[in-house]
C-alpha cells in the first residue's frame, strides 16, 4: 500500500511539472508574438535598412594634373679626373665644401713636369738662334733656302713641344671645372695618381632636376613653363615649387612614354638624390560639381555611385572629368546637393533601404533644442 502511494505521488509531481513548463512556453510564445506585433512598419523597415555614410555633391574649384615619382638630380655634375700622373702633395678641399670653377683642388708633384718644360724651352731657344742666323746667311747665299725652311719647321715643332710641356705642368694643379659642392673625394695626400683616374666628384645643387616618363596620351597637355609641386619623402609636409623645363618632342617606341624634365631651385632643404612625388597642373576649373572619390563604385562597370533618394540606394552612372585631391568632377549624372554613399557601398544593391548614419543624431538634437529652451524659460 505504501509503495502504491509513493508511485501515485511521483506521477502527480511529474504531471504538475509538465503542466508548469507547458504554461511557461505558451506564455513566452505569446509574449514574443505580441512583441513582434508591437513593432510598427517603420520600425521594421528601419531594422532592415543598411547603415551608410553620405556626402553631398558640391561645387568647388578642381585642377587637372599629372602626378608621378622621380629622384632629384643635380643639373650640373662633374667627375674630376687627373690629367697627368704624379704624387698628390696636397688635397685642398673636403667633402661638403663649396668650391668655385677654377679653384685649385689638388696639387701633384710638379718636378718632372718642370724639368720637361726647361728641356723643351732650351731646345726652342737653340732653334730660334739657328733660324735667325740662317735668315742672315741666306741673304748672303751661304745657306740654301731649303735649309732655312727646315729650320723654321723645326722651330715651330719645338715651340709646340714647349707649349705641351707647359700645359702638362699646369695639370699638376687640379682645378674645379664647375662651381658646386664636393660630393666625394677619393684621394689623400701622398697617394700616387694615375692619369685620367677620377679623384673628386662635384655637384651643382643650385639647380636640381627631376625627370618623369609620361604616357604618350598626356603629350598634348604638358608644356614648358607649367608649375610643378613637389613633396619629398625626407621632408614630409613641406611642399616645394618648380617648373617644367623641357618636354621631349618624341615618344619612346619601346615604352610608349616621353620625357618631361622639371627643375627646382637648390633650396637649402632640397638635396640631390631625394625621392619625391611631383604634380603638374595643366588645367583648372573654378566652379565644378564634385563628389569624394570614395563614392565611386568599384564593380568593374561604368563609373557610378549610389545616390540616396527617398531612403533607398539608386545606382547612378556618371560622366567624369578631372580628378584632384580626393575629389572627382562629375560632368553628367548628378545635381548639386545630391547625397552619394561614401561608406557602406559593399552591402548595397539597387533599391536597398538605407539608414544614413548621423542624420538621426542631428534630428534628435534639433528636436531636443526647443524642449531645452522651454525648460530654461520655466
Written description of the protein model:
- This protein is α+β, with helices and mostly antiparallel strands and 378 residues long.
- It has helices at 2-38, 41-48, 111-139, 145-170, 359-377, and strands spanning 50-56, 58-71, 73-81, 86-91, 98-99, 104-108, 173-175, 180-185, 192-193, 198-215, 227-232, 239-247, 257-265, 275-292, 304-309, 312-317, 319-324, 327-332, 339-343, 354-356.
- Strands 2, 3, 5, 8, 10, 11, 12, 13, 14, 17 and 18 form an eleven-stranded antiparallel beta sheet that branches.
- The model is unreliable at 1-38 and 360-378 (pLDDT under 50).
User: Tell me, what's the shape?
Assistant: elongated
Query: What is the CATH architecture descriptor of one domain?
Result: Beta Barrel
Give the mean pLDDT.
Answer: 79
Oligomer: single chain
Strand content: 35-45%
Which CATH class of one domain is shown?
Mainly Beta
Helical content (DSSP H or I, runs of 4+): 25-40%
Give the low-confidence spans.
1-38, 360-378
Major β-sheet profile: 11 strands, antiparallel
- The total of beta strands comes to 20
CATH homologous superfamily identity of one domain: Efflux pump adaptor protein, beta barrel domain
Computed structural class: alpha+beta
- The name CATH uses for the topology of one domain is Elongation Factor Tu (Ef-tu), domain 3
Rg measurement, Å: 45 Å
Q: Give helix and strand order, one letter per element, not per position.
A: HHEEEEEEHHEEEEEEEEEEEEEEH
**Number of separate helices:** 5
**Separation, N- and C-terminal Cα atoms:** 80 Å
Amino acid at each position: 500500500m505504501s509503495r502504491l502511494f509513493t508511485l501515485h505521488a511521483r506521477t502527480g509531481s511529474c504531471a504538475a511539472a509538465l503542466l508548469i513548463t507547458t504554461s511557461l512556453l505558451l506564455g513566452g510564445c505569446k509574449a514574443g508574438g505580441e512583441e513582434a506585433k508591437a513593432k510598427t512598419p517603420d520600425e521594421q523597415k528601419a531594422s532592415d535598412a543598411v547603415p551608410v555614410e553620405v556626402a553631398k555633391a558640391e561645387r568647388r574649384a578642381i585642377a587637372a594634373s599629372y602626378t608621378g615619382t622621380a629622384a632629384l638630380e643635380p643639373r650640373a655634375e662633374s667627375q674630376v679626373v687627373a690629367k697627368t700622373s704624379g704624387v698628390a702633395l696636397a688635397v685642398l678641399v673636403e667633402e661638403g665644401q663649396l668650391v668655385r670653377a677654377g679653384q685649385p683642388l689638388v696639387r701633384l708633384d710638379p718636378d718632372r713636369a718642370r724639368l720637361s718644360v726647361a728641356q723643351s724651352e732650351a731646345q726652342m731657344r737653340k732653334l730660334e738662334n739657328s733660324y735667325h742666323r740662317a735668315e742672315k746667311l741666306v741673304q748672303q747665299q751661304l745657306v740654301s733656302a731649303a735649309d732655312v725652311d727646315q729650320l723654321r719647321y723645326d722651330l715651330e715643332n719645338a715651340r709646340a713641344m714647349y707649349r705641351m710641356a707647359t700645359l702638362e705642368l699646369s695639370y699638376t694643379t687640379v682645378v674645379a671645372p664647375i662651381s658646386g659642392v664636393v660630393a666625394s673625394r677619393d684621394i689623400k695626400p701622398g697617394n700616387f695618381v694615375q692619369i685620367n683616374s677620377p679623384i673628386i666628384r662635384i655637384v651643382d645643387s643650385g639647380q636640381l632636376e627631376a625627370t618623369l616618363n609620361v604616357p604618350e596620351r598626356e603629350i598634348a597637355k604638358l608644356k614648358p613653363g607649367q608649375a610643378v609641386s613637389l613633396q619629398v619623402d625626407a621632408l614630409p609636409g613641406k611642399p616645394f615649387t618648380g617648373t617644367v623645363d623641357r618636354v621631349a618632342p618624341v615618344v619612346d617606341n619601346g615604352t610608349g612614354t616621353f620625357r618631361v624634365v622639371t627643375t627646382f631651385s637648390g633650396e637649402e632643404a632640397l638635396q640631390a638624390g631625394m625621392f619625391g612625388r611631383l604634380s603638374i597642373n595643366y588645367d583648372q576649373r573654378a566652379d565644378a560639381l564634385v563628389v569624394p572619390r570614395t563614392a565611386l563604385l568599384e564593380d568593374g562597370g561604368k563609373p557610378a555611385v549610389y545616390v540616396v533618394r527617398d531612403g533607398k540606394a539608386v545606382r547612378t552612372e556618371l560622366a567624369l572629368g578631372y580628378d584632384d585631391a580626393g575629389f572627382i568632377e562629375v560632368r553628367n549624372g548628378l545635381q548639386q546637393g545630391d547625397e552619394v554613399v561614401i561608406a557602406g557601398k559593399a552591402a548595397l544593391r539597387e533599391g536597398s533601404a538605407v539608414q544614413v548614419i548621423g542624420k538621426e543624431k542631428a534630428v534628435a538634437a534639433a528636436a531636443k533644442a526647443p524642449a531645452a529652451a522651454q525648460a530654461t524659460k520655466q
